[in-house]
Design brief:
By secondary structure, the chain is α/β, with parallel strands linked by helices. The protein is built from eleven helices and twelve strands. β2 and β3 form a beta hairpin. Bound molecules: ligand PBG and zinc ion (ZN).
């Protein structure tokens, strides 16, 4: 065939080296943020497997230290911390206790690895006895979170995390005005240079199911649909992003990632901001379950799912596969 009237796309797919040269999307260790669950427990060797998230654990601070140590040796550069307090109460006191579990874990990590980027998730649902992400009026059983009173507790938590040494504060509660409230409180306390990684576009998703087992944070009544976004909406995502930009956030999370890649693409094309995608617990669990059954190739699916998320516009990815991908050398 010698006439030149059709496109020969296969020329650039001939060899692995040529394919690598023309590849448009590559993953690197700099893109990855690994979540960890650290528990306030009397057992210093706690390493409690999370049944719905095979390979993930609730860790004592000492076990977290070991786990992060080996991941850092494999190239991990950033972690996202979730705390599981010893006790919960209606106002989630453990979240803003200067000696709380996350605060202690941050101090430990920063002492060991000053260069590690330690991001702290900021929410009350792991700390409240009712499992909601903010304050519930006494006697309310509908799960309606009181917005403005909650902002004060979130601001206290942010300052407490920053004091402990957190590099980045990541509010995941979806209250209105929380980025502004956090920014003001942080600035007032001298943390003008602590960035806020806002969960700007966070859907009310069933994909968080396994996480709520992991963090024991499922709401005891009602659900999160009065504060997290409706899965059918995308115009609303533009408004949520704009609000968080206006309030002064520095980095912007879209969550979940895979099922919302259209949203990621639109946010990337609409706003000139650092975008973070969160491949959440349910996305992780689905891949693990199918891989354990031998129905899919774990490594290939992990790489393809992460590549798709990055190709959709994410600059960074929070993923429970981060440590594994680095240890196994899938990503460098
Ligand atoms: C806390 C929080 C949740 C997740 C991150 N921060 C749970 C929720 O909103 O119910 C989900 C993470 C995951 O599923 O991996 N608000
Ligand atoms: Zn929450």
């Amino acid at each position: 065939m010698t006439d030149l009237c059709f496109h020969r796309g296969r020329r650039l797919r001939r060899t692995p080296a040529i394919r690598a040269m023309v590849r448009e999307t590559a993953l690197s260790a700099n893109d990855l943020i690994m979540p960890y669950f650290v528990a306030d427990t009397p057992d210093p060797s706690l390493r409690q497997p999370i049944p719905s998230m095979p390979g993930q654990f609730q860790l004592s601070p000492a076990e977290l230290e070991k786990e992060v140590g080996s991941a850092v040796a494999a190239g991990l550069r950033s972690v996202l911390l979730f705390g599981i307090p010893a006790e919960k109460d209606p106002l989630g006191h453990g979240a803003y206790d200067d000696n709380g579990i996350v605060q202690r874990a941050v101090r430990m990590l920063k002492k060991n690895w000053p260069d590690l980027v330690v991001v702290t998730d900021l929410c009350l649902c792991e700390y409240t006895s009712h499992g909601h992400c903010g304050i519930i009026a006494e006697g309310d059983r509908t799960g309606h979170v009181l917005n403005d009173p909650t902002l004060e507790l979130l601001a206290r938590t942010a300052v407490s995390q920053a004091k402990a040494g957190a590099d980045i504060i990541a509010p995941s509660d979806m209250m209105d005005g929380r980025v502004l409230a956090l920014r003001r409180a942080l600035d007032r306390e001298g943390f003008e240079e602590t960035p806020i990684m806002s969960y700007a576009v966070k859907y009310a998703s069933a994909y968080y199911g396994p996480f709520r087992d992991a963090a024991d944070s499922a709401p005891h009544f009602g659900d999160r649909r009065t504060y997290q976004m409706d899965p059918g909406n995308v115009q609303e995502a533009l408004r949520e992003m704009q609000a968080d930009i206006d309030e002064g956030a520095d980095l912007f999370i879209v969550k979940p990632a895979g099922p919302y890649q259209d949203v990621l693409r639109l946010m990337h094309d609409s706003f000139d901001v650092p975008l973070v995608a969160y491949q959440v617990s349910g996305e992780y669990s689905l891949i693990c379950a199918a891989a354990q059954n031998g129905w899919i190739d774990r490594r290939a699916i992990v790489m393809e799912s992460l590549t798709g998320i990055k190709r959709s516009g994410a600059g960074m990815i929070i993923t429970y596969f981060a440590a594994e991908a680095l240890r196994e050398g899938w990503i460098r």
